[in-house]
Amino acid sequence: MTGSRIRQRFDERRAEGRAALVPYVTAGFPSPEATREILAALAAAGADVIELGIPFSDPLADGPTIQRSSFRALQEGTTVVRVLSALREFRRGDETPVVLFTYLNPVLRYGFPRFLEDACAAGADGILLTDLPAGADPGLEDRIAASPLDLIRLTAPTTTLERVVEVAAGGSGFLYYISRTGVTGARSALRDELAAEVRRIREAVTLPVAVGFGISTPEQAAQVATLADGVVIGSALIGVLEDEGVAGVRAFLSSLRAAMDRR
User: Fold this and answer.
1) Catalytic residue positions?
2) Sheet of 175-178, strands arranged across
3) Which of these, 123, 116, 210, 218, lies nearest to 168 by C-alpha position?
4) pTM for the full model?
């Protein structure tokens, strides 16, 4: 779907010589009622695309920070219905593209066809299912491809270039490159090999490439912005939300946006 809002946003930033800023937040953390306010704060602080996490009780790809936020959100009564309701409320006043980020279990439990229909009706632009590798379930993948939602795909340093091309061909919106192996979590430094890896991928695929996992500071965000089409920030943002609330999130994301734009 080359005409999607997600792809359009990446194309706009590329034309401006800037990278897209893609923050992740867990819906329902620190409370279900706070989600709409947090989404609005991210958009106001310069988010180009927002990843909205639907919490799951066994988030294997996530490190301790996002795990804590997911468990807290579930304890607070967050459900798929409440996540879509918060997105619908956000959509009344903002058009920032939103990707629903989750695992297969909550979606299948909700009912896959119903989920696609309700997600589109709520205003979602894309979906990222961390435990649905490309080719694992062609039936589900075809259903997403036939919907208005972009299917955001993940690749990692262990993915061969041939496989990267195959994965990208079945995705849309942007390609999410995991900057390192392991689970999510803030890190003090980026890997030395990252620049060469991202360059090879961008030369091999037509989708914009966003880099995430471990980006923690404005300096790191600025560095990644020189390499990739987009910068994804997750665990560090959740950590700020834990410690400083919505005002802290707004200030932190604004500092990332400013650093990326100064490069």
Assistant:
1) 51, 62
2) 150-151, 126-129, 98-102, 50-53, 20-26, 230-233, 209-212, 175-178, 153-155
3) 210
4) 0.94
In this structure, which topology does domain 5-262 adopt according to CATH?
TIM Barrel (3.20.20)
CB 174 within 8 A of CB 209: yes
Per-residue pLDDT tens, the chain, 263 aa: give them: 445 999 999 999 999 999 999 999 999 999 999 999 999 999 999 999 999 999 999 877 777 889 999 999 999 999 999 999 999 999 999 999 999 999 999 999 999 999 999 999 999 999 999 999 999 999 999 999 999 999 999 999 999 999 999 999 999 999 999 986 444 444 456 778 999 999 999 999 999 999 998 899 999 999 999 999 999 999 999 999 999 999 999 999 999 999 999 86
